[in-house]
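BUG: 3D viewer hangs when loading the predicted structure for this chain

Environment: internal workstation, default settings.
Expected: structure renders.
Actual: progress bar stalls at 90%.

Input used:
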Amino acid sequence: MSAGAADITVTGSGSLTTGAIGEGASIRITGSGKAKVGDVGKKADIRITGSGDAILGRVDDVTARVTGSGTARLVSQPQHSDYSIMGSGKVVMVGADGKITELAGKDLERARHEREREAARAERDRERERERAQRDRDRN
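Structure tokens produced before the viewer hung:
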């Protein structure tokens, strides 16, 4: 099966398999179910609550929210991504070089802290530059 766009919901221990989805996919898994989806043309929005699995082909833009021990598996590294993991769940991606990257909640928290530190550093640098420029203007 293939479709232009799809809203996929798996509740309990069920499973669903689809072919390619051209426009985008909204995937909701509650419980231990599984959704296996072919390539998604544009955006995939994944929500897993419980121990379920979502397996996706290639997709450019992914938002994944995993609550529990579920797993979102992506056969490629998306160009744009937003991940949130609460619990022991994970996001697993295969890069263009075949390297497997696995993200767990603690990895995302560490990355978020690093982004916050980098943003604070950049703001301090911008403020120093503004102060320097003001001093130069005051001297002239």
